[in-house]
Amino acid sequence: MTAIFALTTSLLWGLADFGGGLLTRRTPALTVVVVSQTVAAAVLGAVVVATGAWSAAGPRLWFAFAAGLVGPIALLAFYKALALGPMGVVSPLATLGVVVPVGVGLFLGERPGLLRLAGIAVAVAGVVLAGGPQLRGAPVERRTVLLTLVAALGFGTVFALIGEASTTVTGLYLSLFVQRLTNVAVGGAVLAASLRRGGSALPEGGFPYRSLPALAFVGLADVAANGTYATAAQHGPVTVAAVLASLYPVVTALAARGFLSERLRVVQAAGAGLALVGTVLLATG
To answer: Which residues form the EamA domain (predicted)?
Structure first.
C-alpha cells in the first residue's frame, strides 16, 4: 500500500509541476501559487464541513500549519532559482530535499534492509539524472545554488511535516485544509509585498479566467498529492514513501515529452530507467 500511495503522489506532483510550469509562462508565478492554492483551500473547506472534520482538531495541526508556512517559501525559492540559473542544475539539485524525510525516518528507528537501501540509492540517482543535470557550461551563481538548496530543504521539510500532521482520514482533511489556508496567507502576503515594490500580479490581458480550470487542477493535484503522501507515510516506512514520492521529476519530464513533444536527453532517459529499477527494488524489498 505504501508503494501505491507514494507512486500516486509522484504522479500527482509531477503533473502539478508540469501544469504550474506551463501556467507561469503566461502568468506571474506568485499569482499561480496563490490562485491555485485558494481553489484547493475552498474545495477542502467544503470537504471539512461535509465530513465534520473539525472534530479532529488537535495539537498535530501545528505540523500542518508549519508545512503551510514552509511550502510557499520553498516554492518561491525554487521558481527564483529557475529564473536565475539553468534548469539542468536547479532541477536535479532540488531533489536533494528527499534526505530530510529519509533522515527523519532513520532517526525514528527505521532500518531499511540491504535491498531497500540499494533501491533508495538507485531511485535517487535516477531522479537526479532525469532532471537532465548540466555537467558542463558557464559557472552557476552562488545565489542560484543557495536558493535551490533552500527550496530542497523546504520541500523535504514539508514531506516530513505533512507525514506527522494527522493519524485519521478526517484529521488528514483538516490538516490539509489548514496547510492550504496558511499557504494562501503566506503567498498572499508575499504577493502584496511584491506589488508594493512595483511587481506585477496579472498578465497583460488581465485576470486569466480561461486558465482557471488549469489553475484548479494544479492546486487540487498538489493537495491530493499531499494527502496520498501522508497516507503512504502512515502505512509504511517513511524512508520508502519519501523516495518513491520524490520520483515526480520523472513524471514531469515524461509529461513534457508526451504533451509538448520535448525530446528527452540520453541522460534523462537513463535516469527514468534507473528510477524505475529503484522503484521495483523498494517495492519488493
So the answer is: 3-130, 144-283
Indicate the residue type of 222.
D
For residue 180, the enclosing domain spans: 2-284
Instruction: Output the CA torsion sign for 104, 119, 285, 111.
Output: negative
What are the residues whose beta carbons fall under 8 Å from the beta carbon of 235, sequence distance 6 or more? Answer: 1, 2, 5
Number of domains comprising the chain: 1
Structure confidence by residue, pLDDT tens digits, 225-242: 999 998 988 888 888 888
Q: What is the pLDDT of residues 61-112, one digit of tens each?
A: 999 999 999 988 888 887 777 667 666 566 667 777 888 888 888 887 888 7
Name the nearest CA neighbour of 256 among 10, 17, 13.
17
Inter-CA distances, 94 with 14, 18, 97, 126, Å: 14, 15, 6, 14
CA 125 to the chain's CA centroid: 18
Question: CB neighbours (10 Å) of residue 49?
Answer: 12
